[in-house]
Design brief:
The protein has 374 residues and is of the alpha+beta class. The protein has ten helices and eleven strands.
Length: 374
């Protein structure tokens, strides 16, 4: 029985010694080993055997990146406004030996250093800039902490501000300021919109005036070209007509046709005078159609290079003779008004005795007057 108890004690001691000497280190971990109270070595991931009753595990560290909360604290900005600020810190142990023997508690030391550095950085800027300068504040804190923690074997990777909480009255004032700023921007944008609309409208009016002026210019050019073409066409037609009339006058019966045409036009134009008024000034020989025809014949002969006018055909009355009395008596009858009112004819001479009242005559037609002239 005693032998069994002794065997059990020996087995227990062996197990205890193996438990104390055999060590398995997890991945991304590091154990600091001390031999008789003095640093011996650092164990990496894997299976290790320690010397019994001589070596022991003094410190255990995780080599992973760790996140540590920074407690909320009161900071005073450059414009003397108290704000509550908290954050989060990211760090990693790089040297377990220095982290064990370089400082007593590196986590507490880094947290305190982060708070003091944050208060210092917040005091350099105004409240309005604290929200937009977060990146600058974080970079400054990381730089300061990294310099301080380098002898401790710890690397500060980054720092992030979580919340910036101003007092209630400051929040109210900031809301009013932001509301006023938004209204200001809205008014500015509205005025700029009206300005742009006015500029666009003016530009449109300008383009419209330019287009209208160009259209008017082109229209005037087209009208001028059309009038020029019309004038040229009329001139050509007139020239051709004159050439045709000249050729016709050179032929047989041309002069007689011309005399007949002149007499018809003369009587027609003279008849129009009676429609415009009952008193007008006319030449003394107004009713002498034969003299007018003789003048036209002289013009035609002069244009043909002949010095003398041809004698009128047989049976045709000469100007100034008694044979043209029927034609003379025809004119006053043509000039009387439709209602039967007589016309007062005033010759071109200033002799009062030459004024005569036109007396009604029997109706005679233009065709009859032409036949009498012929």
């Amino acid at each position: 029985m005693e032998s069994l108890i002794g065997v059990g004690v020996i087995v227990f001691l062996v197990i205890f010694v193996l438990a104390k000497t055999a060590v398995v280190v997890p991945q991304q971990s590091a154990y600091v080993i001390e031999s008789l109270g003095k640093y011996s070595r650092t164990l990496d991931a894997g299976f290790h055997i320690l010397m019994p009753f001589v070596e022991r595990i003094a410190y255990r560290y995780s080599l992973k990146e760790q996140a540590q909360d920074i407690a909320e604290q009161v900071c005073i900005t450059k414009d003397n406004v108290q704000v509550h600020v908290d954050g989060v810190l990211y760090l990693q142990v790089l040297d377990p030996k220095r982290a064990s023997y370089g400082i007593g508690n590196f986590e507490f030391a880094i947290a305190q250093l982060a708070q003091t550095t944050l208060r210092s950085e917040m005091g350099k800027i105004e409240l309005d800039r604290t929200f937009e300068e977060r990146g600058t504040i974080n970079a400054s804190i990381v730089t300061e902490l990294d310099k301080a923690s380098e002898p401790w074997g710890v690397k500060v990777l980054r720092y992030e501000i979580k919340n910036i909480t101003p007092p209630a009255d400051v929040l109210t004032a900031m809301e009013k300021q932001m509301r006023a700023e938004r209204e200001k921007r809205a008014l500015i944008l509205e005025s700029e919109g009206r300005r742009d609309a006015a500029v666009n409208q003016a530009e449109g009016e300008k383009q419209k005036v330019i287009k209208e002026s160009e259209a008017s210019r082109q229209m005037q050019i087209n009208m001028a070209e059309g009038e020029a073409e019309a004038i040229l066409a009329v001139a050509r037609a007139t020239a051709e007509g004159l050439a045709t009339v000249g050729a016709a006058l050179q032929g047989a019966g041309g002069i007689d046709a011309m005399q007949l045409r002149i007499a018809e036009q003369y009587i027609g134009e003279f008849g129009k005078l009676a429609k415009e008024g009952n008193t007008f000034v006319v030449p003394s020989n107004l009713s002498d159609i034969a003299s007018i025809v003789a003048i036209a014949r002289g013009l035609v002969r002069g244009a043909n290079g002949q010095g003398e006018l041809p004698a009128p055909p047989a049976g045709r009355s000469q100007p100034g003779t008694g044979q043209d009395q029927p034609a003379r008596s025809l004119l006053p009858g043509l000039c009387q008004r439709r209602r039967g009112n007589p016309l007062r004819v005033r010759p071109a001479e200033a002799d009062p005795g030459s004024l005569a009242r036109a007396e009604p005559r029997p109706h005679r037609t233009v065709r009859g007057a032409v036949q009498r002239l012929r």
